[in-house]
Model the fold of this input.
Amino acid sequence: MRYKDWFYEQQTENQRIGFRIKETIYSGYSKYQKIDVYETEEQGRMLTLDDLIMVSEKFEFVYHEMLTHIPLCVHTNPEKVLVIGGGDGGTVREILKHDEVKKAVLCEIDKEVIDKSKEYLPFTSSQLDNPKVDIRIQDGFKYLKDNKSKFDIILVDSTDPVGEGAKLFEKDFYQLCHDALSEDGMLVFQSESPFLHKDLIKDVFHQRLEQLFDISSLYLSFIPDYPMGMWSFGVGSKKYHPKNDLITEKADKIAKNTRYYNKDIHKACFALPNFVKELVD
Amino acid sequence: MRYKDWFYEQQTENQRIGFRIKETIYSGYSKYQKIDVYETEEQGRMLTLDDLIMVSEKFEFVYHEMLTHIPLCVHTNPEKVLVIGGGDGGTVREILKHDEVKKAVLCEIDKEVIDKSKEYLPFTSSQLDNPKVDIRIQDGFKYLKDNKSKFDIILVDSTDPVGEGAKLFEKDFYQLCHDALSEDGMLVFQSESPFLHKDLIKDVFHQRLEQLFDISSLYLSFIPDYPMGMWSFGVGSKKYHPKNDLITEKADKIAKNTRYYNKDIHKACFALPNFVKELVD
Done:
């Protein structure tokens, strides 16, 4: 919500964070959601969907690096990568740092997010016109159904589990992701904050991941753009262990071109505090 | 600041976080600062000093465990531990989980913080009347000067480097801490957020720690009570390496009685993202 020259994100009913706005760059509604782009005093450009912060210019690198490089530094040959959601382009930008990627499909339901990102968020959308990128404006369910056993890695770069985004936390969706992966494929998705969404994480882990994949895991990252600063990512994998099978040379190479990710972080992010361990043990 | 039934912490000039308040439990001024205790809807009881959040009932465990157990699970025989600041008592509570501690001195300049914590924050102040605890209402500088080579571990549980708290980030103070430690002593202090206080961390690390101690290090923790959710702790040590010399049996024993800390977290918290590594390399 806006109040005078501040934008407030309502993180829970009883908690909100506010940023002073220099200028509202864009404000409008797509078929699916409210889209705003602000120029903030503190975090640079900021994209919000339905008044929830998706990316800030200053801190988006953390989320995009941590979603992408964990699986891509583990899989021995990730040639085909699918991103579901992620219309701002930050995840695709990180994927293309890996030379072995031949094709990155971005399946985003809301064309407006892509268009506004191209127009106003050059720092995330910089690679969306790269010839390796195939943009599909389509519902993720439909695309997954039509593309069985196709992808080495699927990254679910979704919004919170409300509205249109809620479907991406349902069991059917994980089944479709599983089936769209090749036989050594890996799925990684953002799975909210353990400080706030304990039941969701438990459910997703035990009712989805563990039932569908040989290897399932959870890792954590500091993400200042999202509530509580601690964010989790779920992994479902058919062959590679997301921590133990780290290819150190790949991590070292990528870490020359990152601001957050490196091989120490890769190993460390799987260490879970007691209260998080309880959710997945 | 208060606005209607919300308390806002001004995290920077252009960023603030707000919590809905059920009730203001206490509000007053000590000789040193403004002290407030709120009953919040989301985080339970909350103590603020000069309108900055010090502890919340829901999340204080993270900060207090991570400040305390890292050094205490590394030092082979931490009999005497000094806390500077920390009047809420949370750090002392964690220290006393270690049976080998014979004496915990709490040196807090502001008696009001201790009194109000005893009255309104039973969850942190629960051990302040333990016979092992020696409370000194005194300036930390003075106490350190009078107690050379006395302590196995010193924990600096300070406020932010503004007002009275600023002195605790000056070189003189680190020298005094160094001199008050026994020959295998360890110093740990909260050192703000790498997302916000880069110059402070650089300075403290290179101009204080590295010059005074044989071993210096930085570790990180998710701390939802503090700005950006990522917090750092500095370590100066005369003998033990804070990561490599972890005594696993101690960590395992303590982790039966913690909600955040465990041996995996102990090792992982020293992994630094690239942008933090740059500050201390």
Remarks:
- Chain A has a mean pLDDT of 95.
- The interface with chain B takes residues 6, 8, 12-20, 40-43, 59, 62, 195, 220, 222-224, 228-230, 255, 258-262, 264-265, 267-275, 277 of chain A (CB under 8 Å).
